[in-house]
Amino acid sequence: MDFTFNEDQLMFQEGVRDFLMNEVSPEKIRELWETETGRCDELWGKLTEMGLTGLTVPEEFGGMGMDELDFVLLAQECGYVALPEPLVQTVLVAVPTLVNSSNDDLKSTWLPKVAEGSARIAVGLEQNLLVEDAHVADLIIMEKAGALYAVEKGEAELEYNESVDLSRKLYKVTFNEANATLLAEGDEAKALIAGALNRGALGCAAQALGLTQRMIDLSVQYTSEREQFGVAIGTFQAVKHRMANVAVPLEYSKATVAFAAYAIANNLASVDENVSHAKSIACAASLIGAKNSIQVHGAMGYTWEVNLHIYMKKAWALDKTWGNQAFHKGRIADAIFADNANIGAGKTFLA
Amino acid sequence: MDLNFTPEHDAFRAEAREWLAANVPAEPLKTYDTEEGFQQHREWEAKMNEGRWGMVTWPTELGGRDADLIQWLIFEEEYFRAKAPSRVNQNGIFLLGPTLMEYGTEEQKAEILPKMADGTEVWAQGWSEPNAGSDMAAVRAKAELTEDGEYYIINGQKTWSTRAVWADQCFGMFRTDPESKRHKGLTFILVPLDLEGITVNPIPQLDGLPGFAEIFFDNVKVPVNRRLGDEGQGWEVAMATAGFERGLMLRSPARFQETAKRLVELYKENQATADEDPAIRDAVIKAYMSAESYCITTFETACRLIKGGKIGAESSTNKIFWSELDQDMHATAMDILAARAELEPFAPQAKGVGTWLDGFLFAQSGPIYAGTNEIQRNIIAERMLGMPRK
Is the ipTM of this structure higher than 0.95? Predict the structure, then answer.
């Protein structure tokens, strides 16, 4: 039993954190809100250079051949900066869905392009109302009537849906099966869809950890500087306790998210439960983070000018997508209320 | 990352399971907050010690098994699965024991630890005083060194002293420098409770039983070799003890996972009425998730510590997490039991109430003892998040 990340994983996290903190500042995010696509090819190019876009692409297709466990800490960092680029989806959802499929043509066509940064792939599941980043995708993997299709750029009709989070680009995607390639059907499609959903949910959970930490950091900074009654408002217990109430659920979500990544990477039988658990609690922590952070910012927190809303809005959105609380708690309920449920002390790591 | 247990872990688990299956009393013991129950629990400690299961984390030469934290967690899982008795000497084994190993003289270790291990001496805590609760540095009970330097003469009062009514020994912090203030001038002293001048007044708890007591010291003469650490080092020794208390050892995840499991079962037994309030189902799901989070996080922390990592202020998140989880789980059980919730288990109409009421009452103390959750939140905000103290 070794529940720790290895040196390489931790160093990679550090490197990515430094990179993202430099490249994806709040100013940069605001700048991208004003652009047509909201996405930055230059940034995508740099992410590719770091090997990030091809992180889960097998080495034979030019990628790094890493897994969910290698990426989960990086996804957390993406959350910390509220990265607008669809890196988490690409690495965690799109690539593994292709890799795990039996369609060798699609794999050999698209995986090298993702690794070299010349193509982006979006994924549209029926679980989600809309498709993230369909506008910049060269290929969209779409679920339809129990099957998965690969739809090339230009073959789908996109309808833009504005989100409160201006960094989120959401599309209703309509396509005709005749103009798409069948990626998988039947049991294969079912397994791929289930896997994609779990990976998407893991991505949200990991990003939620980063977002929550960012909201804590912004709040600690603000309340250490802002003075009322002649002292920094962060000295008041009422303010301190609000932040402690964010730190506690955050602290108790981290290992659960890592465990979910491990469960996916190692095909644990309990994977659905592990992922739903992680998604539910990490996103719940981020909602408390948003609620308490805006409160300790006072009226400033309600302004467009203060950066808090960049992270807060993403947190609100991620909680509701890739399965909302009802969906994920429902899966937990299925697991624990079943007649043959095997729960209690000593069961957690024996799946 | 590898979350598989090793064959050694599996063997350890199997051995613990087998011993517990053969030795855990079929009839639950009476509560140790009664004289008879206290004696039963003392005997259970002796039996555990015979099987070398009493203090698995202690060194082998002291009757332990040199277990690392993962093995300890495994043992606890088996212990709670087996519905084995509560540990009457928890204050000794988990709090004082490790502190004694760190700060004690060889003589003290040889004298005290074996009797602690076999339950001959059960330990009570002497932290709080009427005016030193959350503000522990406000301790006033005095210990004055006699002129010959052989004894401390102790005067003053301790209170909320858990297990003190039938315990044999008490550890606590006393002010040895009368001029000193706050954290300075305090000394950690181990006091036998049968000494002349000691009066123990039982305090009935919420369940009516004397789970704690106040202790009066009237010129109590304690040999100087009962001092743990140096004179004036009391705060440091106490922090080490409280560190253990707040840390992993006090409340292992298994306890809460078993409570969560019973809560799931209680919900299923009463689902038709429980579902009349949809909040109940949600609370059960959340309780299960939180108990699992506590387990997952604790294993992660244990692995980190084994690899040389440290626990810092995040141990304060631990105490808040389990105590509020315990309170929530029992509150949910009360919701499910509805009109039966208030009934004592022996009341004629108290069908299926189990031990939930007892647990509910005890759960109310969790956010208060071992440092109130408000104090823990201050520690988190200041030391973990870096918010300004003043």
Answer: yes
